[in-house]
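for the recovery benchmark. tokens below, seq after
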């Protein structure tokens, strides 16, 4: 018994931006970007919100007829059409929520008529979908054996979404970062099965990013009138975030004229962290499931940089063919990256009934993690 994936889907914005297009913004070129990252194009949300992308990906995962929602275009696989009112839980992983109250999960619940679901958002950066899937699996498992469990109180089906519009927090003048990112959404439906094993092991980790190698201080601030000496309608200075800036080490960048609310990254140290974290997370889920690399049919990694995937493959001693590569036309889409690649693997028939699959990711936080499941 276990939590089994019964549907998955993805949605990308219409506007595709090629490496050459970025030459109009920064000093870069196609050869540098493609050879260093494996990225050729990425999709940028100009007309779409994160919510419309997420709802389209989720609808595809549920196997819903999408004739009425032609945009954004979505692709999906599902074992059977899934009744929206049978979803008990919606988890929405994102670092770029369109809104904070209500949660994005609550709004997708409204958009798709997931009437009985409880809903919440999760922020674990690019590992968000892995965290979401693990929380969903834990909730499904716990509710089966909870004291007094009944068919009314058991949580049987969860919709886990990963969606990001990194273009909102990208510094389009910084060639070190802007060539890497894209927008998109992916989703999966997991169901508790009394027969199939489904998710066999998961592993979550959070290392302190003490050197602030990957940060984004995306606060939206309302002016507030409370000065240290009392209530003053004219006093709109808010010094409360200076401590946060110091914590994230962004004072100097802002003083030098940079923006406060964009992604800042030390690429080289993230590269090193990422390749080690990926390898370690795969080894952990293998150990926890009692399987070996020989039992694994497909690895679906976070699509941040093809070179990181190659490096991890080499370290694990696995052929690159074992990895799902979807990065070429997406770039790094953060929380959406793993569920979109998962949808690619199902839609192309790359994974089949009985296969053992590992999902693995890393990201800001510094988060990392993996899930090993049987299709
Ligand atoms: N176009 C052209 N040149 C660029 C460039 C661009 N877009 N971005 C950086 N460069 C330059 C640098 O300025 C540097 O020039 P210099 O040697 O004159 O200083 C040179 O290219 C090499 O930079 P370097 O940082 O050594 O490149 P790299 O081989 O490490 O690749 C990354 C850079 C960002 C692609 C790589 O470090 C990486 O992928 N890191 C991980 C990022 C990541 O995955 N983040 C998300 C985690 S969820």
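predicted aa per position
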């Amino acid at each position: 018994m276990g939590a089994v994936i019964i549907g998955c889907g993805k949605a990308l914005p219409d506007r595709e931006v090629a490496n050459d297009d970025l030459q109009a913004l920064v000093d870069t070129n196609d050869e540098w970007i493609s050879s260093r990252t494996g990225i050729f194009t990425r999709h940028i949300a100009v007309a779409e919100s994160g919510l419309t992308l997420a709802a389209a990906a989720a609808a595809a995962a549920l196997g819903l007829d999408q004739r009425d929602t032609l945009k954004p275009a979505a692709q999906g696989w599902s074992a059977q059409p899934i009744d929206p009112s049978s979803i008990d839980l919606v988890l929405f992983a994102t670092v770029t929520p369109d809104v904070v109250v209500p949660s994005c999960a609550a709004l997708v619940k409204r958009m798709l008529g997931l009437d009985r679901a409880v809903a919440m958002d999760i922020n674990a950066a690019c590992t968000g979908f892995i965290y979401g899937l693990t929380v969903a699996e834990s909730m499904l498992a716990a509710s089966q054996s909870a004291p007094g469990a009944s068919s009314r109180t058991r949580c049987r089906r969860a919709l886990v979404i990963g969606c990001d519009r990194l273009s909102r927090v990208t510094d389009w003048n910084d060639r070190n970062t802007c060539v890497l990112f894209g927008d998109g959404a992916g989703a999966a439906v997991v169901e508790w099965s009394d027969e199939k094993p489904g998710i066999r092991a998961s592993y979550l980790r959070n290392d302190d990013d003490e050197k602030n190698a990957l940060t984004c201080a995306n606060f939206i601030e309302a002016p507030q009138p409370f000065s240290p000496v009392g209530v003053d309608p004219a006093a709109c200075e808010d010094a409360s975030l200076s401590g946060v800036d110091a914590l994230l080490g962004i004072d100097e960048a802002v003083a030098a004229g940079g923006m406060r609310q964009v992604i800042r990254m030390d690429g080289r140290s993230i590269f090193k962290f990422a390749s080690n974290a990926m390898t370690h997370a795969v080894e952990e889920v293998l150990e926890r499931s009692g399987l070996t690399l020989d039992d694994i049919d497909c690895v679906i990694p976070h699509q941040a940089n093809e070179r990181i995937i190659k490096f991890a493959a080499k370290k694990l001693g696995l052929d690159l063919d074992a990895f799902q590569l979807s990065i070429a036309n997406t770039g790094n889409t953060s929380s959406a990256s793993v569920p979109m690649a998962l949808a690619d693997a199902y839609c192309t028939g790359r994974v089949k009934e009985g296969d053992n699959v590992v999902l693995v990711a890393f990201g800001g936080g510094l988060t990392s993690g993996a899930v090993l499941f049987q299709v």
